[in-house]
Amino acid sequence: MNQTVIEAKKITKTFKEKRIFEKLDFAVKKGEIVALVGENGAGKSTLINVLTQLIPKDQGEIHYFNQEKSLLIDRERIAVMTQETAKLKKIRVSEIIQLVRSFSKHPLPYDQLLHYADLKEHEQSYMEKLSGGQRKRLGFALAIASNPDVIFLDEPTAGMDSYSRLKFWQTIALLKKEGKTFIVTSHYLEELETVADRIMILVKGKFVFNGSMDELRQNRGVSEIQFYFDDLKDKTYWLSIPGVESVKIINQKIKLITDDVALFLTAMQGQFEQLKLLTIQPNSLESLFDHIQEEHQA
């Protein structure tokens, strides 16, 4: 777990004079599952493309596997599962997996890839006949065919049903135990909250957080309180109440992040009759990210 597999120093990328991200510094350790979180257009896919040398960076250095110099990556050690898997015509699942395996010196066994992707029943199916979820699972099998050390997963479970998503993350957990490293983007933040060892939140081209889910809760507030309030109050009012870290108001619905529920409820004594449909729950990654986005809106 101590070996650094990727280290980025001051990396910057610009497209047509638009700065996508600027001077990003981070490292990824062997055996980690790292979640890369950001809104659409935040630069997550661009960052993956830069890290995997599919597009060039403008500035900075990226070191792989403790190499002293920033060299070309070994495509057998670093792999990418992209958002889309091509629908090739007249080629079977078994044929495309065996073809991709043939490009590698030490590929994973064919049967193991079928098992990991849960495609045993579809190995003789043509690619164009697969459902969206089955094609995503095939994309995963192709990504790990070379037996890579680091795998980038770009929206890996989009299009999968709930059962397939569960089995997919069970497979990721198994591969993590074998020392594989994963960098993941997904709109299913509840999945990332459960599986990720570390979360990096990208907002306006910079990381505003880099740490574990527990650290995020400690940093941003442990609980979320939701309710409707009879009197319309602005954010300044709610932020003035002890224990409140951040606020989001949608119509009359109030969402508060707090690190001390008891302190908030004590401060609201005498106004309980105005709190309608009150709920208190542990903070989720989705709610915390929602509040972070709100704070950084220009």
From TrEMBL:
E.C. number: 3.6.3.-
Entry keyword rRNA-binding: no
Matches recorded under PROSITE patterns: ABC_TRANSPORTER_1, ABC_TRANSPORTER_2
Pfam family, one: ABC_tran
Keywords: ATP-binding, Hydrolase, Nucleotide-binding, Transport
Domain ABC transporter: 6-229
GO molecular function terms attached to this record: ATP binding; ATP hydrolysis activity
Classification via InterPro entries: AAA+_ATPase, ABC_transporter-like_ATP-bd, ABC_transporter-like_CS, ABC_transporter_ATP-binding, P-loop_NTPase
Designated name of the protein: ABC transporter, ATP-binding protein
